[in-house]
From TrEMBL, chains A, B:
Function, as annotated: Plays a role in the regulation of phosphate uptake.
Swiss-Prot/TrEMBL GO biological process terms: intracellular phosphate ion homeostasis; negative regulation of phosphate metabolic process; phosphate ion transport
Subunit structure: Homodimer.
Primary location class: cytoplasm
Family: Belongs to the PhoU family.
Keywords: Cytoplasm, Phosphate transport, Transport
Taxonomy, superkingdom: Bacteria
Chain segments annotated as coiled-coil in the UniProt record: none
Name this polypeptide is given: Phosphate-specific transport system accessory protein PhoU
Ranges for domain PhoU: 17-103, 122-204
Entry annotated with the keyword Cytoplasm: yes
GO CC terms in record: cytoplasm
């Protein structure tokens, strides 16, 4: 029973890791689609998204089967429950990458971004890819130190997001309201992508150490980030 | 065992309903704070938010205890797992109301909204309150017909959200980029609030009928909504 549980739990962790990896890859392609106005890449993200949705369903069903057939207790039970909760976060990461790709597709053949903000999105994209890859490893290895490091990348993302707002709000902004609306939504999508990865890390830390990180929680991080965007 | 399970499950449904009710009330106050530039109301939403976070933790712990102590099987097990998943959606509804309140507070004593979009937010606020109240009843009664009707309200929200974008994107928009950025974020918060309520309804429908609604799923609804905001 115990060996069966362990095998199934490893499988579930790997599935979640695979999802996080795919979400990171989707954000990589979506960012390139955005920066290069590349319709083919955007459409690839959109069609690849089904695979993440499918893995979401499979993961939920596997976790449910684990509960039903292995009846885990104590820490094992908590691991499965956390797995179910993490599916929603990782699924959402994929949906956010999809949103970025859809904006790139909608504006094609035009570029969504004025050149002066390209650098922000290149860097937010780089962080998103890195945080997606790190979340994958965290899910597969349950390394609490690596999980804690997701927060550092999230902070870098929040900084960029704040700076992006100062650019938008500047009196010299000459690219009009429509571009500002797109950029506002895009910035939000990248920032939320990182928040969900941090939430995954937070759950892994709790599972392994029994404690939440000191500077909890993700919802708070999201709220703080909003508070501090420039007036 | 079965009677104990039923009692605990009713308690969990009521707790989730209470959370949804509080999220709806928070959105009501946040909307009034926004429309009237009312700092006291905005701060009330912000300080009341802790209660939703607290109920979130309590709900998760109750659901976990239910699994650990009652070891439910089959449909009962599925109910508890859904309960755990719904906590995240309802918690997020509260966080979105908090975001609206924080924007109202940040701009105080100024109004966030130019007068011409007040009507949109008054109506989006009305729908949010109504959908929050309906979600509360759905959680308490598990009425699948009422749960399906949440989607209608969500569609009304999406329509408003789309119209709001046409106003922002209009060449005659004279309120500058900063207001447009705020309105873009606010619109997104109301729209996501409704999406999460629909997701709660969808899970209740699945629990009661064993089938998902025909026009599934929420993530798709969110994605479609983005697709259709005006080019």
């Amino acid at each position: 029973m115990r060996a069966a549980y362990n095998d199934k739990m490893t499988e579930l962790g790997d599935l979640l890791g695979e999802m996080a990896g795919l979400a990171g890859e989707a954000m990589d392609k979506a960012t390139r689609a955005l920066l290069q106005a590349d319709l083919t890449l955007a459409e690839q993200v959109i069609s690849d998204h089904d695979r993440i949705t499918e893995l979401s369903t499979v993961s939920e069903e596997r976790a449910f089967a684990l509960l039903a057939l292995q009846a885990p207790v104590a820490g094992d039970l908590r691991s499965v429950v956390s797995g179910i909760q993490m599916v929603a976060d990782i699924d959402r990461m994929g949906a956010l990458a999809l949103h970025v790709a859809k904006i790139a597709r909608r504006r094609h053949p035009n570029h969504v971004l004025p050149e002066e903000v390209n650098g922000y999105f290149a860097e937010m994209g780089r962080i998103a890819v890195s945080i997606g890859a790190a979340a994958k490893v965290v899910l597969e290895t349950r390394d609490p130190e690596l999980a804690a490091r997701l927060r550092d990348e999230d902070e870098a993302m929040d900084d960029l997001h704040r700076h992006l707002f100062t650019v938008l709000m500047d009196r010299d902004w000459s690219h009009g309201v429509a571009a500002a609306v797109d950029i506002t939504l895009l910035g939000r999508f990248y920032e939320r992508f990182a928040d969900h990865a941090v939430e995954v890390g937070r759950r892994v830390i709790f599972l392994v150490t029994g404690k939440l990180p000191d500077d909890d929680a993700t919802v708070k991080a999201d709220a703080d980030n909003l508070t501090t965007y420039p007036d």
